[in-house]
Protein: DUF3105 domain-containing protein
Organism: Streptomyces tamarix
Amino acid sequence: MTYPMQPPVGGDRHQVWTDCDGTVHEEPAPGVDAVHSPEHGAVGVTYGGKAPEDAVEALEEKVARTPYAHDDEPGPGPGGRDHAVGAGRAGHRGRADDPRVNRFLAAYAQGPWTPEPGAACTGGTNGTAGR
């Protein structure tokens, strides 16, 4: 499946979502799984392949502390920048220590734009199912 932007913010999807309860995945989730999680109010976070290790670790720590969030490593974030997606919206952020990352997580994890508020974020795929 192709999407107009990467990571995708919506579109065709599988019935199972990407596990997203503060989950740090070992590899990127397929777009058809990842686009389902924001419907549940999850924020997906990726980072570019050039992101420094300390920034990756800081981002993973933030995700692990955030219910309704997941990261996919490494993801299709542009360059070395972090990229967050939630409920049909995307936000580019400079680094994990940028305060806008916290604001994005707070605004979009179970935010008012959530199509299915309170839907499960556990029991989804681990990033490899559905391929």
The chain has a mean pLDDT of 77. Residues 21-108 form a domain with the Glutaredoxin fold (CATH 3.40.30). The first helix runs from residue 31 to 34.
